[in-house]
Amino acid sequence: MPENISKYRIFLASPSDLTEERESIDAVVSELNFNYGNQNNIIIEVLKWETNSAPGISNTGVQDLINNDIPQYDLFIGLLWMRFGTPTKLFGSGTEEEFELAHLRFLKDPSSIQILFYFKNALPATFDDIDPDQLSKVKKFKSSLGEKNILFWDFDQNEDLCRFLRTHIPARIETLKKISVLPVAEVEKNEDILQIAEIIIEEEFGILDYQELIEDSFAISNHSLNIISEATRWVGNEMNKKTKEIDKLVAQNHNQPISFKVQRNIFVKTANAMNDFANRIEPEIPIYFSNFEKGIDSFSKLINIYKSDFENKKEEINELKVSLKNLIDNIPKTIESTNGFLITIESLPRMSKELNAARKNVTDKLRDLINRIEVSLSIASEVYKNI
Quick one: 216 and 287 in the same domain? Predict the structure, then answer.
């Protein structure tokens, strides 16, 4: 008998510095079609401007050619690393414009699309490859995703991304299968872009909605804290390596002074590692705080519903109170460890202009982080007092 086959299309968006990753996704999808697709009567297709667009001319902009050439898709996969991309008529890059179109579709109809976004954390081959302006745009965009309730993933190597996608693509296809699929009219993309700022969604949430919001918000918040913790461990190890390198040189020189050029080289490497650490944690700080705030706000509203709508829910309220207390009790440990690292950075001697600038960069970011965590503790404590 003939079988019904479902086709799911993936649109891949990224700047030009992720060519290797773009090519490897084709291999991952071929593998998924063989393993996951055959078992579930599913075909997965990758859409990219390289294969699904064509040369042409437009009186509005090159990006409009790509937008109009790409067929409707079900999953959007975005990748960013060191480059943000070339500006378009209305957005900072083609990747940003493609993302905003996908996000707009989700706002209009959450059953029509799933969005997966990944950021590469690996260092470039040389520091000359870093464009501060491009990197700043990437960090700003990354910060904005948390405010849109988009949970993104970080990866270091291409192999890590492939491993994630083997799991994440089937998971999000299953999400689309579970929700009701409504016909989605082909949209006029230029009109959609102009409507992005005009969309307002008003919903009245209940217990289940707030429980999901609490879980999702704290998951995103904790994910950002974990990234910050990993980055802290990494930069600590890098700084220890440089200290041992100096000690080794001193021993080899039989305690004779090391040349200034050698010292500067080591301190420049240390400064580069510290600046990289600051760049890693900067976009995570607002994501952590905004989602923590959202989680606590949902916590408060959930408790209010229990109190107003249910007379016999004291046990549930007590469970929420215990859960919130555990959360509050763990925050001072985070503040203490972060403050300890801040003191370590502040105590670094002023050895070179590069190291001095990096020290200020890191301390500024750490102070901001500590301030946000302390505010988080204050907000959570106030909610706890009012239960």
Answer: yes
Sheet with 114-120, side-by-side order of all strands: 42-47, 6-13, 75-80, 114-120, 153-155
Q: What is the pTM of this model?
A: 0.50
Q: Which of 123-132, 201-210, 253-262 has the highest mean pLDDT?
A: 123-132
In this model, does residue 138 exceed pLDDT 80? Answer: yes
Give the whole-angstrom CA distance, residue 118 versus residue 99: 12
What residue numbers bound the domain in which 350 lies?
Answer: 207-386
76, 86, 95, 198: which is closest to 142 by C-alpha? 95
Structure tokens at 271: 């400064």
pLDDT at 26: 92
Last residue of a domain, one of 164, 198, 232: 198
332-341 long-range contacts, CB within 8 A, separation 24+: 332/377, 334/225, 334/373, 335/370, 335/373, 335/374, 335/377, 338/232, 338/366, 338/369, 338/370, 338/373, 339/370, 341/232, 341/236, 341/366
Question: Is residue 1 one of the residues assigned to a domain?
Answer: no
